Amino acid sequence: MSEWELLLRLALSCVLGGVIGYERQSRRKVAGLRTNILVCLGSCLIMVLSEALYLNVEGRTNADPARLAAQVVSGIGFLGAGAIMKEGLTVIGLTTAACLWVVAGVGLAVGAGYYAGALFTTALVFATLGTLSRIDEWLMHEKNLTVLIHCSERPGQMLLINREIESMDLRIRSIKVREDEGEAGLIYIELDIYNHGNARSIDVVERIRALDGLVSVKVT
What we know:
Elements (H helix, E strand, L loop, with lengths): L2 H24 L6 H25 L8 H16 L3 E3 L2 E3 L1 H18 L3 H29 E9 L4 H11 L3 E9 L6 E9 L6 H9 L4 E6 L1
Antiparallel strand pairs: 1-2, 3-5, 3-6, 4-5
Helix pairs in contact: 1-2, 1-4, 1-5, 2-3, 2-4, 3-4, 4-5
């Protein structure tokens, strides 16, 4: 492989990783532009190294050029796992982790000189992340309720609220709790609820407001 070919592969991996990384960063995800570029570039370099090592020992040993690449495929899982977090009852970062895994594959493809596969994959990933995310946001916007509860901080309060919401055939997607700095013993609970049963907002407010220790309930 000439130095120009090596430079082409490394540069192209940066560009393709950057395209996917730009989409992730525009949505303020954990792994953004720089992370995706580095993953793709590193994968490309490892694939090029695998081929170079094989060519140096070809005919003298049973070296397998895919061994280093295989370690990338499995090893990138550790990096992806670091992007997966649990926030309240919701797990976030799964798409980011999957994105890193695909970007590693794009880097390996470029490193192996499989440009068509790398380009097509990048285009499909970019289209998937961009288009499907907008469709998902549009659909979920119609079925989501944000409930802000101002209540006393007492043991079992969240459990009672959760039971009441589940009794209405609703599902909590995320929970955020913060203290009321103006008055001791009170807290604010913000619930992101998936309203797949199309419950009326006023019914949700009335059911939750009937619980003890509540100051106010708002639905947006």
